[in-house]
Amino acid sequence: xxxxxxxxxxxxxxxxxxxxxxxxxxxxxxxxxxxxxxxxxxxxxxxxxxxxxxxxxxxxxxxxxxxxxxxxxxxxxxxxxxxxxxxxxxxxxxxxxxxxxxxxxxxxxxxxxxxxxxxxxxxxxxxxxxxxxxxxxxxxxxxxxxxxxxxxxxxxxxxxxxxxxxxxxxxxxxxxxxxxxxxxxxxxxxxxxxxxxxxxxxxxxxxxxxxxxxxxxxxxxxxxxxxxxxxxxxxxxxxxxxxxxxxxxxxxxxxxxxxxxxxxxxxxxxxxxxxxxxxxxxxxxxxxxxxxxxxxxxxxxxxxxxxxxxxxxxxxxxxxxxxxxxxxxxxxxxxxxxxxxxxxxxxxxxxxxxxxx
Length: 357
What we know:
Distance between the termini: 35 Å
Strand order of the largest sheet: 1-2-3-4-5-6-7-9
Low-confidence stretches: none
Mean pLDDT: 93
Order of helices and strands: HEHEHEHEHHHEHEHEHHHEHEH
Helix content: 40-55%
């Protein structure tokens, strides 16, 4: 095994945390706020994460969602790299079927050159948006074809990153720059992301690290992790499985305030699922909203998978989740209307686990 790659992947638990803790930032935009303010909050969160001992921070590719300003992960990661020094940064993820593999290799080769040894390349096969937007991104209506071609696209991307197309291949004389053609260099480790079994099995077969979206597909978490571990074959990247899970969690100074904040995210999801995406509503709007019985059922189920409350309550919930799933790392996403509430949540969680300060 290439130990350097494995060391880039595995985190180290800090303080009293059961596993390494990391951050997933959706660059949320609240009602009455701007994308500029949301991106400033992202810098605040990244700097806090670095200072307090979180292992990594990822941003996720989403499109045509007013409440999420992370449509261009590579651009945001470059911005965060310029404002941090040690924190690992990555995509959670880039949606591979939306892009030519060469473009992703160039973008993440550039990021690796900017922040050597700090970049992760997490890849997903979903569009990260609705079908019409996906068609506009991919300039085709054959969306299933992109998902079905994911293993081939992944193989092509890997060869561009390693600059090792075989002689005679149509791309043998094409080089992703920055990259190995310029001399010995590192490259970002590839992670596969998923919310079902497809990427879990593929990550296992290829011996890659796996990230599961527990925060919106909790019912599939344990089956997917089991499938990943059962399918795993040691590789030049990893000699044993390594899986993180995305977790929606928010801590506040008072339990009631935490409930008010997470309700804004639940209402956002109701609107998204019913074709009405918008900015993250205020707590006051969410509390006053008249949920239909069907919407209330959805919200209750959604909030049942959001760990929220005081710092001690959130710590207890995270501990239990780590124990139940056997995840090697927890990646926490804090969804709330106010950027300050999100920053405060990560600070409180760090306090609860005695992370450095």
